[in-house]
Amino acid sequence: MHVEIREATAGDWPAIWPFFHQIVAAGETFTYPEDLGAEEARGWWLLKPPDRTVVAVDATGTVVGTAKMNRNQAGNGAHVAGASYMVDPAHTGRGVGRALVEESLRWAAEAGFRGMQFNAVVQTNTHAVRLYEDLGFRIVGTVPGAFRHPTHGYTGLHVMYRPL
């Protein structure tokens, strides 16, 4: 699937929220509260510059995914970027996630970051782990039992990193 990635606007939130809510409420891949409300979620996801939030839209203009990008830490850790991604479950397996990760890597490199770090990749989220590894990320550590998965029970959270 070919997607266009563009800056997210406040007007995109009504298209993002349904799949954002579905993904978070499932409790399988994000450490967000499963009962996170729309307004609080909007504040967590739609970031202001110099951070960035984007949407992936298909040929019809439908929002099929989104990503947020930011510095991973402040101060002396601000040279490493972080990012999070959500793909509408109706559009998984079509390259949307890959396009979003590639865009975040491009943005981070252009912004002068020295690397990108993911702090909490759920160990059982094997599709994401495989995608990140395909794009050059490596697991640098796993916190055992740090995520309570609704069906797999306590599982690990990977910290993944890639230099830029």
TrEMBL record:
Q: Where is the N-acetyltransferase domain?
A: 3-164
Pfam families recorded for this chain?
A: Acetyltransf_1 (PF00583)
Q: Which domain of life is it from?
A: Bacteria
**Could you tell me which CDD domains the record lists for this protein?**
NAT_SF
Q: So where does this one cross the membrane? A: none
Q: What is this protein called?
A: GNAT family N-acetyltransferase
Organism for this UniProt entry: Streptomyces tamarix
> Taxonomy-wise, where does this protein's organism fall, top ranks first?
Bacteria, Bacillati, Actinomycetota, Actinomycetes, Kitasatosporales
